[in-house]
Amino acid sequence: MSRKVAKASLESMYRIFTVPEAPGSTLGRINQEISRNLAGFLRAHIVAVEKDIDDMEADFSDTLIPEDPVFVSEQAQFLLDKLVAQSVHTASPSFIGHMTSALPYFMLPLSKIMIALNQNLVKTETSKAFTPLERQVLGMIHRLVYQQDDSFYTHHLHDPSVALGAMCSGGTIANLTALWVARNAAFPARGDFHGVQKSGLVRALREYDYDDAVILVSERGHYSLRKSADVLGLGSDAVIAIPTDDDNRIRLDALRETCLRLVNARTRILALVGIAGTTETGHVDPLEAMADIAAEFGIHFHVDGAWGGPTLFSGTYKHLLKGIERADSVTFDAHKQLYVPMGVGMVVFKDPTHLRHIEHHAQYIIRAGSRDLGSKTLEGSRPGMAMLVQSALKIIGRSGYEILIDQGIDKARLFAEKIKAHPDFELITEPELNILTYRWCPAPIQEALAHAPEPIVRQVNDRLSKITKEIQKTQRARGKSFVSRTRLTPARYDHHPCIVFRAVLANPLTTPEILDDILEEQAGIAREDFLNEYRHAIDHLLAAPAASHAGAR
Amino acid sequence: MSRKVAKASLESMYRIFTVPEAPGSTLGRINQEISRNLAGFLRAHIVAVEKDIDDMEADFSDTLIPEDPVFVSEQAQFLLDKLVAQSVHTASPSFIGHMTSALPYFMLPLSKIMIALNQNLVKTETSKAFTPLERQVLGMIHRLVYQQDDSFYTHHLHDPSVALGAMCSGGTIANLTALWVARNAAFPARGDFHGVQKSGLVRALREYDYDDAVILVSERGHYSLRKSADVLGLGSDAVIAIPTDDDNRIRLDALRETCLRLVNARTRILALVGIAGTTETGHVDPLEAMADIAAEFGIHFHVDGAWGGPTLFSGTYKHLLKGIERADSVTFDAHKQLYVPMGVGMVVFKDPTHLRHIEHHAQYIIRAGSRDLGSKTLEGSRPGMAMLVQSALKIIGRSGYEILIDQGIDKARLFAEKIKAHPDFELITEPELNILTYRWCPAPIQEALAHAPEPIVRQVNDRLSKITKEIQKTQRARGKSFVSRTRLTPARYDHHPCIVFRAVLANPLTTPEILDDILEEQAGIAREDFLNEYRHAIDHLLAAPAASHAGAR
Question: Is the peptide bond prior to B343 cis by the omega test (within 30 degrees of 0)?
């Protein structure tokens, strides 16, 4: 195809900064379509069937930056054909495998205002009113979690010497920030020692006479914690995974034992992390009891509420998070269940002086004593996403979020019932919040597994895992609906790894009929030819347990 | 004011996810205004005169999340009155103090598509074609910097086992990622030791028999480096600031000496950081010579090109960055001189296997061997900003960016001439790229300072600093134009600290007339009453040097 070639000139460069896209242009039309009917736009332009990955990569393979400008209309058409068409329909009500869901309509025009203003939150000189706005949003989430009184917020909200939290790009940076604070607070300056912040870990452990410093979390902890431990110089092995009970919650007896063992081994426990909604199964750790243990051993108690934090909006379900108000810090993701666009997260600290442990200053910005937010964040330049979070909190309101949270949990329970009632599936984890897992495992196989000897169970489970994985991949490729998958170690199968479907019921537009369709599509895929051999192998194994048992050894 | 109260219901919650804002609504009107005439919108709605900070904070002081939903129109009006009005006019051509400048018009509709798609780049399941797109953008910047041949990019661009770089929220995370890689690469696994990534810094130094690990950068290094050293467990004191010459460039003799001293002291130098465009003065370190020193001592060579990287687009000025192609890693900010909205940065690595040193996996996502970008980034969930970067690179093109870069540098030189020719100002640093610094210091005072004894010079400089600071604050508060300020230690004044104006000439819409106006406004402020006393004090000091000298002791 022969391309029209534009020539760059000073005039053409002025033009891109001063002349808006004409409403009739390709980009103008796309925009009107999105404004008028977002759902229709996504439906019309995202193709259902996946393109081959090699073909997709071929569309994005040129590494030479073009010498001459490409026309805006040409690029817009390119994006529509090659990118939008092959993007993921995260807003689709039949895509229940992601933590990224539909967005409220008002987010689109508000985001445009945010982009147009292009503020930089690192310092007041490039953010002005956005600075108190961001502090207000952090105050709102702080209050949701910690419920302090009016005078507390009057006193601290806009006091530049403290901070109720830090806003960031997402849960990973939020968790990292919390652990960074915990590490620095554990080894402060004293005597000739200038603190771990200035003098580093090696000197800190020597000064405080520890051999090691670790972080405790259940084995369901998010991988960002291991990554954080790596970044922080502790090493990812410093995250000690505590076993979980049958409901994926941290085992308090094991936690207590570990604490005792570590304290006796001259190991400093920097943080205990409780999970409010595990990524894989949505379970909530026993936060109240964990707070007790943290208090007993003098450990920073962090709660990763990236997923489950907004459960606090629900009068019905907030009791599940009881004890979160005793956490020293809490991670809260806005681009998950606050329904704000990707990527904005937060971490709030019970003690407004806690973030001082990571304070950094510079001459040209964030001078000591200034109101600049950048002195107490890991990131430097940051966009004004706080505007979207504040708008969501106000336009949806406490009672609106309650409805969204409640309908998600109720729908997950309904889906669990459907799975249990379906002859082809086995529910693996009951939903505590709005996440559940299940797998393909017809009733007769479930029945047989209950009585089969352990080696047979293992072999059958391996084959079931392959089937569940195949179904998940096939369903995704067909593009009509989507559930994700993960690997769990269910107690009922002696903690042998099993691949399971994972459903996240956060999209308010997902209906019970859609859930039925998803199950039927999966059952249909399983009935197709290519799975027959697995099925035969399973039947064979279960029919002759003794022989297979011997053979497996 | 009595507020209309909405009531949240399941239906009203569905509505916000399914019903677009009416074109005639408050938000609809704001949006059309922005699309039609962004500059006009910003001019009309951002008020010139700063509101008192206390009043501004009062508008954002409620920490209770409203129980009932606020109407979208009410929130839109609130944002217009309280937030937009009091935001910073970053796009204004007379605001030459920020690194945040105007945006090309096409960024607005493209951003809307990005928000509407709401992809999450952590894994292909939530980003699909955005994954190869992001890899392409990293490849484009890699090629701009390293100029490898076609076969290199054919081989590595989409190979999931390697990565040409990592995209992130901005320069701070980019620098941190580079130093994280450098630290982990310095202490890899060997024998029984599992590497610093798993086992942490204390064991790493013990295993490799070092007392210390440090990072070298000139005293003009960005504060994100000290922050990174803190995060990484090295401690911020591990950043050793090498003195600079009169042009704010690292002194190679001092650098070499420091390297020799450290090597003899069993200190591991993790990284040497060269600056391509210092934040304060825009100067570029002698990268070629630094690459030689890094090679000689076997040190990871990182270049912080957050500001100056795009100078590579200019045939005329790219020679200033000679040697950058020998860096192991380079930071590049897209929200600065690539004119993409806040916040997106990148770090590219010469060696495509280098990012393996920070690889992390999890079961449910970014499984080993997958194409998921999240295995080699510090952040987890990330937005699809790569789409905006690719569009900018294509729509502006190499030659378009060259024009933007050249006009900025040429304008800075013109401004420097204007300052030198103006009787009231003193140029402090000549522009190498498009940044310069100057201060209020009328010609007679400059003349007198050249001959005054050192204690007098110091006292006069302190007073001049106060005046420059006052002028800067007053000009900012008036809201017509804006330059920033910083504190430098010019060689001509025996490295005594001086507060200076800092001008960043990145907005293509800034005209020579605007530069004249800015100087005249500053000169006018200085002539006003409140500065007279300073002026008298200065004259007095300079008139009686001997007496003052004695008095100062």
Answer: yes
